[in-house]
Amino acid sequence: AAETAQQGPSLLRVNQQGDFFVVFNEKLFRLYGDGTHANTYDLQDLGSGELIGGIAFFRNGDLLLRSGDSTPNWYEQLLIQLRVRQPEQPTGAAGDRLTRCNLESLACAPLKGFEQTFKRTFRVDIDANDNIFIADTGREALHWLDPDGYRLSEVSSGFRLPNQLVRDGDRIVVTNTNRKALTFVPMKGRRFVPMQEWSHLKVDVPEAKKTGQVWPMDLIKVGSEWWVLSQRHNMMNGDVFRFSEDGGYQGQLHLPDEVDPLGLAMLGEEVVVTDYAGLRLLRFSEQGEARGELIVPEIANYANSVRAARAHYARTVSYTHLTLPTIPRWC
Known about the structure:
Blueprint: E1 9-14, E2 20-24, E3 27-31, E4 37-42, E5 56-57, E6 63-66, H1 74-81, E7 98-101, E8 108-110, E9 123-126, E10 132-136, E11 141-145, E12 151-155, E13 162-167, E14 171-176, E15 181-188, E16 191-192, E17 199-202, H2 206-209, E18 215-222, E19 225-231, E20 239-243, E21 249-252, E22 264-267, E23 270-275, E24 280-285, E25 290-293, H3 297-319
Antiparallel strand pairs: 1-2, 2-3, 3-4, 5-6, 6-7, 7-8, 9-10, 10-11, 11-12, 13-14, 14-15, 15-16, 15-17, 18-19, 19-20, 20-21, 22-23, 23-24, 24-25
């Protein structure tokens, strides 16, 4: 619990009404489209003791997330950091299922048609018709579910630790982490097309190789460009690289070395990037120009409390001559 209270901002998502959401420890901050605070939710009230994996929103505003308390043990966490597929994929407890929650009543119910449990990270996206797309990172699979969670199509090959995904027209775009690429999976009818019809955009361009930031983890589309968050070998201290639709390198944000980004999303006409280590939200123009921090008083106050908890924990460890462990990054 002490380590959990020290985690920084991680995931960013936008619902179909244009509200902006920030996952920060056990809190879910909701902002209006102009960046002002709308609400703060406690994820424990939604049945999620430890948020593992992604979140997404249905068109009526309901939230999809994984409920439950199961977390990876130290060995499974090490494999996540090293981007290693586990020989036997971890299975969560019976309660570690995808859950649909109403953010007004805070009432939640398991997604009816999908009984698979999760103990390791995954990513999820929901389109305008409430189709659900899941990149199962640990099991290296891609699922297409109907709004009730019943499986329409599935792919269990062609991926090596897939992460964030997004629907773009008649295709799904997946950050194919260990293939160092974005993978474009077309859809026909209600099925994914065969693998030989896929295409790929390699993100390990020379500029990324110079710093080792070649492992894609998150992506968004900004105008006609793909902005890709690529991490270093330890899945930390990455940068955001920009690519044209045909794969041409367009530039990068050149984040400082101390910044530890975990997510990015559009807020109005700006791109926001989380800084997990610095407990900040960083703003950029659509041309990649830095615009300072996104200051939201409610988030800033919470960040200050986390900063104080980190300092207290460091002092306690120092007094007892223990080695300070790495704060876990489940998502």
